[in-house]
Design a protein that fits this description.
Layout: E1 3-12, E2 15-25, E3 30-34, H1 41-49, E4 56-61, E5 64-65, E6 76-79, H2 91-101, H3 106-119, H4 135-147, E7 153-157, H5 165-182, E8 185-190, H6 193-199, E9 202-207, E10 210-215, H7 217-222, H8 227-232, E11 239-246, E12 249-252, E13 258-260, E14 273-278, E15 283-284, E16 289-290, E17 293-300, E18 304-310, E19 316-322, E20 332-333, E21 336-337, E22 343-345
Parallel strand pairs: 3-8, 3-9, 6-7, 7-8
Antiparallel strand pairs: 1-2, 1-4, 4-5, 9-10, 11-12, 11-14, 12-13, 14-22, 15-21, 16-21, 17-18, 17-20, 18-19
Helix pairs in contact: 2-3, 2-4, 3-4, 4-5
Length: 352
């Protein structure tokens, strides 16, 4: 089911949260609304499911205008961060509840519950109550309850926030598997860029009620439009160097370091404020733009190390490398950046 937000606006009293936002989610696509707290992503999700009444614009499911329809008339399944399971009901009863409200025949309810329980791998838990389940099991029950009605749209609001790291990894792949197997159109709201990149076909990064960029995870990672987008994607995050344009290159503030700009970069006017973005995988011993500094921190991550290198102006570049024993905190290093992968941003934060 295609979803279209057509010039969608939402205000709370005199506070405008979102104004004239247009977004189309393709049939069968899983899209992430990604951004910091307060950017408007949950507000958008709640408007799609009918919890929030829109202030302006339209919401379409396919060609059907659902803008003024209540939640129960929209054919949406919603999974909340809190799971919201009924504690006095068994797993089977929790999953069956939406079908009972629709007055589906008992024998059909059992067939549907058994089928969806098998899909989310909880068929052996149907007789338990929520208090007897782990967080990951409760999340699967909530997902099964949302899907059992065969909704047109699945909405996921920070669904993995309450899980530990190992369970988050497991449930990321499980939710994606179920979404692909069912072919349902899904929207994921998250502030976690790893969730967005690993689970979704496309990402819409939001900031201050606007979509800053809409692209596939790979395209957005390698070609961010702004420094905000570049800083939001990547773990460990990208590092930024602040400076000015000088003689066709880059002069790092408060230091004697001068760097060439990547080939193909439009030459900014001398004195223009610039920001260079360098990802950890693009800085190390093998680059072609030398940037000397001193190792200020080494973080062991098992099969690789993360090195922080402090430059003359106090800026820090990060480098991910295989574990090595010849580099320690305090060592001077003459590592380099990969010039073709350095990102250049203007004073307004836009990519040059």
């Amino acid at each position: 089911m295609r979803i279209l937000l057509d010039k969608f606006s939402k205000s709370f009293g005199t506070t405008k949260v979102i104004e004239d936002l247009t977004l189309e989610v393709a049939d069968g696509e899983m899209l992430a609304l990604l951004g910091p707290s307060g950017c408007g992503k949950s507000t958008t999700l709640f408007a799609i499911c009918g919890i929030h009444k829109v202030t302006g614009g339209r919401i379409l499911f396919g060609d059907r205008d659902v803008t003024d329809l209540p939640s129960q008339a929209r054919s949406v399944g919603v999974v909340f961060q809190s799971y919201a399971l009924y504690p006095h009901m068994t797993v089977a009863e929790n999953i069956a509840f939406p079908l009972q409200v629709k007055k589906v025949a008992p024998d059909q309810i059992k067939r549907e519950v058994d089928a969806i329980a098998a899909l989310v791998h909880i068929e052996n838990l149907l007789g338990r109550r929520p208090a007897e389940l782990s967080g990951g099991q409760q999340q699967r029950v909530a997902l099964a309850r949302a899907l059992v009605r065969k909704p047109d749209v699945l909405l996921l609001d920070e669904p993995l926030a309450n899980l530990d790291a190992k369970l988050r990894l497991e449930m990321r792949s499980e939710i994606r598997r179920i979404q692909l197997e069912t072919g349902i159109t899904a929207i994921l709201v998250t502030h976690d860029q790893v969730e967005a990149m690993s689970m979704c076909d496309r990402i819409a990064i939001m900031n201050a009620g606007e979509i800053v960029q809409l692209a596939t995870p790979t395209e957005m990672y390698h070609n961010p439009r702004t420094a905000f987008v570049a800083g939001f994607l990547g773990n460990p995050p990208i590092a930024f160097l602040r400076g000015t344009a000088r003689d066709g290159g880059f002069a790092l503030d408060n230091s004697d370091i001068r760097l060439p700009l990547p080939v193909g970069t439009l030459s900014p006017a001398d004195g223009s404020k610039l920001t260079l973005g360098i990802r950890p995988e693009d800085f190390g011993p093998l680059g072609d733009i030398a940037i000397p500094g001193k190792v200020s921190f080494v973080e062991t991550q098992g099969r690789e190390n993360l090195y922080d290198v402090r430059l003359a102006d106090g800026s820090v570049l990060r480098s991910i490398q295989p574990v090595r024993g010849d580099i320690a905190v305090g060592n001077e290093v003459a590592w380099s950046a990969s010039g073709a992968k350095v990102m250049v941003f203007g004073e307004n934060g836009a990519r040059i």
